[in-house]
UniProtKB/TrEMBL annotation:
The keyword Transmembrane helix applies. Keywords: Membrane, Transmembrane, Transmembrane helix. It comes from Aquatica leii. Its main location: membrane. It is found in: Membrane. This is Transmembrane protein 50A.
Amino acid sequence: MSNLCENINIPPCIWFEGDSRRNAIASMVSGFLFFVGWWVIIDAASVYPGTVEAGYHMCGVVGTISLIMVNSVSNAQIRGDAYEGGCLGPRGSRVWLFLGFVLGFASVIASCWILFANFVGSTVSTSQWPGVGLFLQNALIFISSLIFKFGRSEDLWG
């Protein structure tokens, strides 16, 4: 019974084998998700003026800073292979990555909090789309950060 699947050959996915294509596809998907996230909140703010307060946009700004922080550190730096200098070395890059993820999670949690506290549970009859747009923006930015960080190979980036 263990020899049943030994002779099955699954052809490799040729269009996704090259590291340069993998990096390009991950970068394009990540950039598109980042664009869609900001487009959603701009749409919500323009269609429903006055419902999205200026402070709500800080969640998206913090998410964007998180994206920059997470993707400014390569996996080789985290492992300690390519980063020997500085005052903290690989430990500093790990702390930087951790703080980037904390900021990303914080922006998603804060936007979820704003969605349920001010738009879903509100007794005032306003549209829920601005709150949903705020949550979608931060979720898409966080997913974009993860795709760009873990969806590419390290050969071309560091």
